[in-house]
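The instructor's notes for this session suggest beginning with a concrete chain rather than abstract definitions. Hand out the sequence below and ask the class to guess, before any prediction is shown, which regions might be ordered.
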Amino acid sequence: MTGSRLLIESLGKKFNRNWIFRNISLELKSGDFLAVLGGNGSGKSTFIQCVLGSSSHTTGRVSLFTNNGRLDDEKFPLQISITAPYVGLYEDLTLRESIDFHCKFRKLLDQMNAEQFAHLTSLETHIDKPLSQYSSGMKQRVKLGLALYTDSRMVLLDEPCSHLDENGITWYKQQIESRKAGRIILVASNNMETETWFCQHQIRMENHA
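After discussion, reveal the predicted structure:
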């Protein structure tokens, strides 16, 4: 995969007459990791959604560049993977069915299959159970796996350690270390030490209210 560059120019989001955030400008390249910090209600998740394109922004522009130039709006989302509390799973499907379904639309790294995915997420014994039977921590491992193992230039992680116990947090840190190289990663968090320890850059949403 060739190098990537994320350019955010004067990004702002207003709801009715109130600014959620404004005047955010930054540039990140492959291998850059950004912590998006702030308390509850500071606009972290809204900012992540605006970067993804699932929520419209009021001002500014978000662009992702490759060596071939700026990606158009249709191709841009196909280069992003995300996990967030508001991103759901198809809970009627088993893990095996979920991964097979996902792979019809997005490739996993290293030509990974469902069995390999289950092994990496320590869910081998649950691969043929419906996700509805999973605990919240197990579901979070699936969501993080889909974000980190999907072949994408940019990864968006919103509260990635939600529902994870101590073993799950250790697993998260191991997966980040093994899958972060050559990518742009944004982590929205109010728990800097646990979730964003690897980030070299940070913004505080309170500074852009």
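Then share the key points. The chain has a mean pLDDT of 95. The two ends are 36 Å apart (CA to CA).
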